[in-house]
Amino acid sequence: MKIFRSYLFLFALAVAMTVSVYLSLATPVAGNFGDVVTFKMNGTANSTPALLRLDRSAFDTLGSLHIIASDRYGTRQLVRLVSQTQISDAGVKPGHSFVALVEYIPAEKMFVLGPIERVDPIMTFDFIPGLGELGRNMLFHVPMSMTAFLAFLVGTIYSIMYLIRKRPSDDRSARAASAAGLLFTLLATITGSIWARFSWGTFWNWDPREVSIFILLLIYVAYFILRSLLEESEEKKARIAAVYNIVAFVSVPFLMFVVPRIKQSLHPGGGGSEAPIINTSSTPVHTDPALLNLHWIMVILFVLLFVWMKDLYTRILTLEERTEN
Amino acid sequence: MPSTATALLRKDFTIEFRTRFGVSAVVMFLLVTVAVIAFSTPGEQLSPSILSAFFWIALFFGGMTGLARSFIAEEERGTAFLLRVYAPSDSIFIGKLLFNLAMMLSLSLVSVLAFLFFFRDFVVKDWLMFLLQLVLGAAGIASVSTILSAIIGRAAQKGALLPVLALPVLMPLVIATTDATRITLEVANSWDGIRENILILLSFDVAITLVSYVLFDVIWKD
Hints:
heterodimer, A: alpha+beta, CATH 2.40.50.140, 2 domains, 7 helices, B: mainly alpha, globular
């Protein structure tokens, strides 16, 4: 684990983290009719990135919309709205900007608004009714939850290794991994409850997945309570705590994967449905491939962050033990 | 089954019949719980979901009061050492597990009778499935508390610790079993509704018992 202690690793991690967090926060959300966003065409040779902005002149005397779009050749009427209903629910007013998938009609040199799909030359958050800007939480909440599970898995593996090899360093690693897992679970809970507050209305709904993560927190808090209450030698303490860690981990897959999928859930994938990551609209929304890549990059970065934190905490524990002796 | 396990089982039963400490404490706990529920909901129409929650709260905490003693009593009496000398650890585990299972099943029986007697809304529509999920749930609680009481036999503040350690670990089981109980109270032909819950219970019971069996040796020996 020498590499995780080099400054180069830390520097690279910090830079990558900053860039990814920036991208997560700066990437526009498609189709909420309130933001200035750019769009790009897919596929056709005539595609052109453009910024759509509604101004007063977009409304003619009869009240129907004329979309004025600016592209690299100047501002002109490029886009025509097919029907009013596509943007009526947000109550479009002059001055609003919006994004939409537009179809280019070569004959008329016009774009026609189609179903809202994607924005931004690089990537975009898909528009989900009622979720809007909160979609970017997906790049924090989901990787944090994944890292938390990985951390508990690593902790359990170290506990098993401790029981096999009886090396004190394995016990310290198990403790450090579980502690980091607890931290990531806490972060996932916080980001999740912020998400819940603004998309479901309350910070806490006792959704199956919320029950699961709550219980997960209790399990690993109990692990540290047990450790502090054991009145034995260090070796025996480590052994008993390792056993609890392994026994407790038996219920972790049930909590994280089985129960939330069987019970009716507000989360995607609940109630036995085979829902994709995000599917709340009647028309399926496909996650932007670039966004999905960023998601996996975030997962990797969080995992590396976990590895670094675990390593750091293991070293602290080692030093503590050395000073005690 | 090893003969030492049966000997241990017989010993535990003998002590239990002689003192009746465990059973009476648990039954008292259960009756107090039922009385509190009855007093706090006078004349209320209790829905199946509320009744199944009450039922498993009573059963879980009742079980915790009774089963926590299985290894703590040995440590307190100082007989744990003799037990270590006398019998191999796997037969001790089997003996204690079976004793806890018997305790838990009799506790389940008592609580079913108590709920049937005290709550007129507690009407089981599908007895077969109700008993199936009850036995599986009780077995899971017995299995988890066997290994955990062996763990806390070594810790300070033994009495309070078992529920703290056991509840989170047992939570998948409690979620599945409260749901299954609710469904068996609601519909007569409940297999379709509780199939997934039964599968969770079964797999959880098997997994936790196997893991406990493998790991018991590590805790037990010095």
